[in-house]
Specification:
The complex is a heterodimer of chains A (159) and B (287). Helices cover 34% and strands 16% of the residues of chain A. Chain A has a five-stranded mixed beta sheet with strand order 2-1-5-3-4, with helices on both faces. Chain A has two domains: 76 residues, Beta-grasp domain (Ubiquitin-like (UB roll)), CATH 3.10.20.30; 71 residues, [2Fe-2S]-binding domain (DNA polymerase, domain 1). Chain A is built from five helices and five strands, in the order ββαβββαααα. In chain A, a hairpin with a 2-residue loop joins β3 and β4. By secondary structure, chain A is of the alpha+beta class. The longest helix of chain A is centred in the last third of the chain and has 17 residues. Chain B has 287 residues and is of the alpha+beta class. Chain B has a domain of 110 residues: 2-Layer Sandwich (Enolase-like, domain 1), CATH 3.30.390.50. In chain B, the strands form four sheets. A five-stranded antiparallel beta sheet of chain B has the order 4-5-10-6-7. A four-stranded antiparallel beta sheet of chain B has the order 11-12-13-14. In chain B, strands 1-3-2 form a three-stranded parallel beta sheet, with helices on one face. Chain B is globular, with a radius of gyration of 19 Å. The chains are: A alpha+beta (159), B alpha+beta (287). At the A-B interface, β4 of A face α2 and α6 of B. Bound molecules: flavin-adenine dinucleotide. Flavin-adenine dinucleotide sits at the interface of chains B and A.
Chain lengths: 159, 287
């Protein structure tokens, strides 16, 4: 079976890879491109640990076939910090201890960033609904929600 | 497995017609789950998302045509579609999480033919018509005729749904979808009701269509229940009759999500509540 050659943009950089048709985008990110920040929790779209942004939309990379990425733009957790400078959400998650084991954190950060780009002033309810597809088994969510709300407020203040 | 991403409807139909084991791919939120669980092993996957016209929501004769590759998030970002058919959009908005809605389509929800599909009851209540493309051209079929039972559709080999047309809304019209789930998000409907109704100039219900989800092997068109509303103002007596008729029209099974008895009861309650929301919307009030 011949492999498929895919050219796509990942975190702003043009990237090439070869994949099998049934490989998922998550498989390729983790196993072939060494971008292991996106996690495989459930592999069935329920947990959100593999969240990435595909052409501006938040999706589970475990439910995207790798060849679908041809010509598209993919943003992953690896593109969130600028060098050593953490994204304000990342910084706030650390300050407020909005994580424990950390497996869900990359997905939650990617999802929260996408939310704040669309809606800089979300209500708590909107944050909770937006993140309903990101499961966390440690924190009880409260610190996560507060960290997102506070980051949103900081970013609005800075703007 | 062969992966292809045709750029025209004709090309997609030809690829699907050439291989009986090939499957169309829309958002992949059902297909990929089944593929990864090895419940299916298609010989080919035909991605519909590179066909430009399938990615659009376009106005047609006062109604809206939704391409088969339009994710439900795109529907809910479309202000005019939402105001014309709020019930259809809220059904689509209940499918899974933000991540799922960035991908899932109402055509995929329909063609997956799950009895509990959330977007289907209100599409049916709206009188939506699917445009089916196939190797010999296109044909139109009311959405309620697409699923024939759990996981089964009326599509013939090589055929796929290219788009779904929501008709022009009547004057003074309201629509709504309500479901019952133990959790508010990320759950599968135990029962669901879609309704579309319109009022005459004097405030009486002139037209009504009601469809029930998750209480039968496929979506149920509850015509008798709808008839009880017509000519009334949607007063309590009419809503009670509606409730009873909706329960009577249900043919539920008992499973881990609920007993048949519970589902029959809940579908009646949901029908009444959905009708109230649709009435409020028809009167131009916000709900
Ligand atoms: C975490 C999670 C939560 C979910 N929650 C819900 C929920 O709350 N409510 C709900 O109703 N569903 C839910 N689903 C199921 C699923 O998201 C929906 O059924 C969705 O609408 C499927 O659309 P899709 O575009 O992703 O379909 P796909 O997965 O691409 O396709 C589904 C099936 O239909 C076929 N198909 C797709 N498009 C066409 C077409 N145009 N013509 C012919 N055949 C076609 C495919 O070959 C496949 O067999 C959930 C799924 C996940 C993973």
């Amino acid at each position: 079976m011949s492999r498929i050659h895919v050219t796509t943009t990942i975190n702003g950089e043009e990237t090439d890879f070869l994949c099998e048709p049934q490989q998922t985008l998550l498989d390729v990110l983790r196993d072939d491109l060494d971008m292991t920040g996106s996690k495989e929790g459930c592999g069935s779209g329920d947990c959100g640990a593999c969240s990435v942004i595909l052409d501006g939309r938040l999706v589970c990379s475990c439910l995207v076939l790798a060849p679908e990425a041809e010509g598209r733009s993919v943003e992953t957790i690896e593109g969130m910090a600028e060098g050593d400078k953490l994204h304000p959400l990342q910084q706030k998650f650390l300050e407020m201890a909005a994580l424990q084991c950390g497996v869900c954190t990359p997905g939650i950060l990617v999802a929260a960033k996408n939310l704040l780009e669309r809606n800089p002033d979300p209500t708590e309810e909107e944050v909770r609904y937006w993140l309903a597809g990101n499961l966390c088994r440690c924190t009880g969510y409260d610190k996560i929600i507060r960290a997102v709300m506070e980051t949103a407020a900081d970013l609005r203040g800075a703007a | 497995m062969i992966f292809s991403s045709p750029e025209t409807i004709e090309e997609a139909a030809a690829l699907l017609a050439a291989d009986a084991e090939a499957r169309p791919l829309a958002g992949g939120t059902d297909l990929l789950v089944r593929l990864r669980a090895r419940q299916i092993a298609p010989s080919a996957i035909v991605d519909l998302k590179r066909i430009p016209e399938l990615r659009e929501i376009t106005e047609e004769s006062g109604g809206w045509r939704i391409g088969a590759a339009v994710p439900s998030a795109q529907m809910n970002e479309h202000a005019a579609l939402k105001s014309a058919w709020p019930g259809v959009c809220e059904g689509a908005d209940l499918i899974g999480s933000t991540q799922i809605q960035g991908r899932c389509t109402v055509a995929g929800n329909l063609c997956n033919a799950g009895p509990a599909a959330d977007s289907v009851p209100c599409l049916v209540a709206a009188g939506a018509v699917a445009r089916i493309a196939g190797p010999t051209g296109t044909r139109d079929l009311p959405v309620e005729d697409i699923p024939t039972g759990p996981g089964k559709t009326a599509l013939k080999p090589g055929e796929f749904v290219a788009s779904i047309l929501l008709p022009a809304p009547a004057a003074r019209q309201g629509s709504a979808y309500l479901r019952f789930t133990p959790r508010t998000e990320m759950d599968i409907a135990v029962a669901g009701v879609g309704i579309a109704l319109s009022l005459d100039g004097a405030g009486k219900i002139e037209t009504a269509r009601i469809a029930l989800g998750a209480v039968g092997p496929k979506v149920i068109v509850a015509d008798e229940a709808a008839q009880t509303l017509i000519g009334t103002t949607g007063d309590d007596a009419a809503l009670d009759a509606l409730s009873q008729d909706a329960s009577a029209a249900a043919t539920p099974i008992s499973d881990k999500r609920g007993t048949a008895e519970f589902r029959r009861e809940v579908i009646g309650v949901l029908a009444k509540r959905a009708a109230k929301i649709a009435l409020t919307r028809a009167k131009g009030d916000t709900a």
